[in-house]
Write a structure and sequence with these properties.
Layout: H1 19-33, H2 45-52, H3 56-68, E1 72-75, E2 79-82, H4 102-127, H5 130-150, H6 154-166, H7 171-183, H8 185-189, H9 202-213, H10 217-238
């Protein structure tokens, strides 16, 4: 007995591919093929419109997509610039949460950072190279010098931690942690208008470096926890 035609599955026409998605893929391919690096300028809006045969709104939608991912930035009167290399194969994991209350947002971020930063310290202790140690110590020395001169060292502190993340040789550590820290960049210089924010953690940066240099992953984890515990205590104390 022949099957009824009405019982057969329906083959539906393929949807038209989203034009903005096509543009983002094309831009990612261009960045990869042109070997653009962070700081390089992308083609102008009109040039992209002509090359891709799409309208201004489609180009701008694709640009906004990459801006939201932190891949590019548009500078008024200058153009659009690449913040980090990207390709069609790049995996993007944007982060977002309601940061209406600074204290709660910082504590929520710190909860996540604690796990990731401890792991980063342990991985750095296992995988760091001699070159990595030179860079980390350079950043540490700069941090200590500025801290002793001014009593605070926000940018230098961040540079030290970024060097530790780089020593893991896993780019996700730096990208995830830097994104969380950048969210509150204006507060890391003088959090809660206090120059002494987390000042008590200063000595543990040297002991963290020593643990990484010794290849002691557990010690690196312990020293990282000491730093973050002080940060948590100061957030709670200074935000009362």
């Amino acid at each position: 007995m022949k099957a009824n035609r009405s019982d057969r599955p329906v083959i539906r026409p393929l949807p038209v591919m989203d034009r903005a998605r096509q543009v983002t893929d094309a831009l990612a391919d261009y960045v990869e093929e042109a070997r653009l690096q962070a700081g390089d300028r992308l083609p102008a809006e009109r040039e992209l419109m002509a090359a891709l045969a799409v309208g201004r709104s489609t180009i701008r939608e694709a640009i906004r997509h990459f801006q939201a991912l932190g891949v590019i930035e548009t500078r008024k009167g200058s153009g659009t610039y690449l913040l980090k290399p990207v390709s069609r194969a790049t995996i993007h994991m944007p982060l977002s949460f309601d940061a209406a209350h600074l204290r709660d947002a910082l504590l929520q971020t710190l909860q996540v950072r604690r796990g990731i930063e401890c792991e980063a310290g342990m991985v750095a202790a296992r995988r760091r190279t001699a070159k990595d140690l030179v860079v980390i110590e350079e950043k540490l020395n700069a941090m200590e010098r500025v801290h002793l001169e001014k009593g605070t060292s926000g940018p230098e502190d961040l540079a030290f931690h970024l060097a530790v993340y780089d020593a893991t040789h896993n780019p996700l550590f730096r990208q995830l942690l830097e994104q969380m820290r950048e969210t509150f960049e204006r507060f890391w210089e003088h959090p809660f208008d206090r120059q002494d924010f987390a000042r008590r953690s200063f000595p543990f940066h040297r002991t963290l470096f020593n643990a990484i240099a010794a290849g002691d992953a557990e010690a690196a984890r312990a020293e990282t926890l000491k730093i973050l515990d002080i940060v948590e205590e100061d957030i709670k104390e200074m935000s009362k």
